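Action item from last meeting closed. Structure (333 res):
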């Protein structure tokens, strides 16, 4: 069988007119940065990369050393290539401008450099999430306003998952494609074309310790799942929660399911727990491209017009029929 690498895949996408030369370079650079992050993640205690960095980010979270390292790797890798107008990161408060001595390009890159930070120190799967927008035409450096585009405007989105194997999962607007890192060769190999989220599922993912804080529609939905065969659904559901969004969404993309981080009393004031620009939007694009659905419980995530870089939103995504049910429960409440 012909072995196709990410590089070949991207060249073919360019030939098909789906990605520009600059977007291809961008995705190559992001993939290379993810390889470097993966190396650091896998060294763990040997490289002294575990534990706290001793600083807080703009979200008020204590940064882990790997949050900081992964952020630096992505910023440095992407600064000099000439494909970007600016970047934004979970770990950086404002827009990261391209240093003046490098050429600038037409794309905006957003990322969650290290997703699932609470799992770093216990040697459980973490990831990197990224989203790409076009920089709107205009003069001068991009501003926060330049990034305020709905997720439906994303030209590419994806994540790297650092698990038992390292994978890159990518969409450029035509299906979702998975690549597995061949560590000896140092290249991502195309292993799963056109991932699809099965329409029906018997598996859900939610942090159930927040149950008492959820809104009524979510309490109703989860209670019905937990009643199993005896309840209104008439079947038993299984539950999984890794607490790394990348791992939980990867499971949904691989074998179906529903993933939820809904609004609750703890995160209501902030609008939700997960971040729109570099968590919810890229994952929503991937899930929709794979035939699933993604809403806040009330509206389609990709339709939201952002109002700030670190905006948070409730997230309900995965198998279409389940997401539609949860959304209907919210809308009839
Ligand atoms: P991050 O590590 O990038 O800050 O993201 C953490 C997020 C997400 O990965 C996960 O779904 C969620 O936080 C887990 O939240 P709980 O700790 O409440 O389970
Ligand atoms: Mn964080
Ligand atoms: Mn995250
Ligand atoms: Mn993170």
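Sequence:
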């Amino acid at each position: 069988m012909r072995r196709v690498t990410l590089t070949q895949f991207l060249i073919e996408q360019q030939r098909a007119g789906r990605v520009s030369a600059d977007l291809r370079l961008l995705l190559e650079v992001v993939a290379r940065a993810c390889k470097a992050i993966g190396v650091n993640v896998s060294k763990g205690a040997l490289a002294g990369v575990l534990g706290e960095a001793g600083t807080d980010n703009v979200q008020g979270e204590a940064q882990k050393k790997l949050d900081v390292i992964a952020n630096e790797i992505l910023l440095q890798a992407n600064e000099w290539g000439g494909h970007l107008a600016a970047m934004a990161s979970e770990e950086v408060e404002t827009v990261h401008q391209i240093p003046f001595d490098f050429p600038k390009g037409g794309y905006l890159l957003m990322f969650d450099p290290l997703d699932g930070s609470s799992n770093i120190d216990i040697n459980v799967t973490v990831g990197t999430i990224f989203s790409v927008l076009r920089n709107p035409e205009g003069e001068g450096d991009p501003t926060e306003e330049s990034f305020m585009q709905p997720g439906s405007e994303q030209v590419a989105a994806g994540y790297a998952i650092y698990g038992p194997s390292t994978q890159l999962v990518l969409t450029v607007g035509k299906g979702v494609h998975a690549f597995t890192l061949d560590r000896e060769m140092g290249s991502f190999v195309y292993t799963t074309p056109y991932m699809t989220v099965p329409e029906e599922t018997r598996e859900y993912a939610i942090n159930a310790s927040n149950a008492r804080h959820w809104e009524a529609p979510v309490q109703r939905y989860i209670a019905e799942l937990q009643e199993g065969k005896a309840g209104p659904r008439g079947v038993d559901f299984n539950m999984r929660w890794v607490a790394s969004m990348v791992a939980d969404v990867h499971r949904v993309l691989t074998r179906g399911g529903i993933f939820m981080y809904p609004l609750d009393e703890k995160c209501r004031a902030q609008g939700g727990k997960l971040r729109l620009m570099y968590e919810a939007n890229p994952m929503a694009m991937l899930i929709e491209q794979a035939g699933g659905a993604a809403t806040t419980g009330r509206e389609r995530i990709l339709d939201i017009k952002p109002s700030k870089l670190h905006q948070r939103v409730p997230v309900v995504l995965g198998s279409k029929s389940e997401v539609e049910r949860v959304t209907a429960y919210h809308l009839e409440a």
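Note appended to the action item: Residues 203-332 form a domain with the D-Maltodextrin-Binding Protein; domain 2 fold (CATH 3.40.190.80).
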